[in-house]
Amino acid sequence: KQLDEQLYDDILVYLQESADLPSVQSYHLLASWVIHTYLMEYFDYSPIIVLLGAPARGKSRLGRALVHASFRGLHLESLAGPHLIRLATDHNATLFFDVKNLGKKLRQEQTLDLLLLRGERGATTPRVTSAGKGPFLDTRYYRLFGPTIIATNEVFDDSAFESRTLCLRMQLSQQQFSFPVTPEMALALRERLTAFRSWHMGECFLSPDSRFRGRMYDI
């Protein structure tokens, strides 16, 4: 327990040194979310973290800090369907999409539904991979569930998207940060989080009480 508490506190410090957020609660939310990515076997839902704001608000920096500390994190620009599908099924990856004009890009790629289904366990998408093998053998079903971060400059007006996301509006900051955000800076945390995952695998966790209902209760 003491090691777990120290790990959590160190994640908080790492995030505080990476971004200037509007409240203390925001740091606790994101620290809990990072830990959540290492225990996905216990979750049926994963809230999509949206970092929203104008340029030079620290969205990309915070997104990199989160994904570098998360389980199998990958920083992407592309929202193409094949990337979402294979990285979820074959890699169980945490994905960070750093995109301008999110709505326009999703319409171009036609991948909104795939992105939304990353938030809930169980959904699959079929793809014909071996047309000559005949019925049932020609199709592979790909999983989509996995932790997701999005940094963007616009509000995406879609009720289904909004109901699956936790949105942090990034503020203009005068704070000078002490280090650049690189994968190497989060390496020690990732090692400890991987050990945390191994140590707690197979345990039973309590389900917290919540005053929320519906999809907000799920996420």
Descriptive report:
The chain is an alpha/beta fold. It contains nine helices and seven strands. It has helices at 2-16, 24-37, 59-69, 81-91, 102-109, 112-117, 159-162, 187-200, 214-218; strands at 48-52, 73-76, 94-98, 124-128, 139-143, 148-152, 165-169. It has a five-stranded parallel β-sheet with strand order 2-3-6-1-7, sandwiched between helices. The mean pLDDT is 88.
List keywords for this structure.
globular, 219 residues, single chain, five-stranded parallel β-sheet, 16% strand
Distance between the termini: 25 Å
Shape: globular
Instruction: Give average pLDDT, whole number.
Output: 88
For the biggest sheet, the summary is: 5 strands, parallel
Helical fraction: 40-55%
- CA-based gyration radius: 18 Å
Strands of the largest sheet, in order across it? 2-3-6-1-7
**Unreliable stretches covering 5 or more consecutive residues:** none
SSE sequence, one letter per element: HHEHEHEHHEEEHEHH
Structural class: alpha/beta
Topology:
Elements: H1 2-16, H2 24-37, E1 48-52, H3 59-69, E2 73-76, H4 81-91, E3 94-98, H5 102-109, H6 112-117, E4 124-128, E5 139-143, E6 148-152, H7 159-162, E7 165-169, H8 187-200, H9 214-218
Helix pairs in contact: 1-2, 1-8
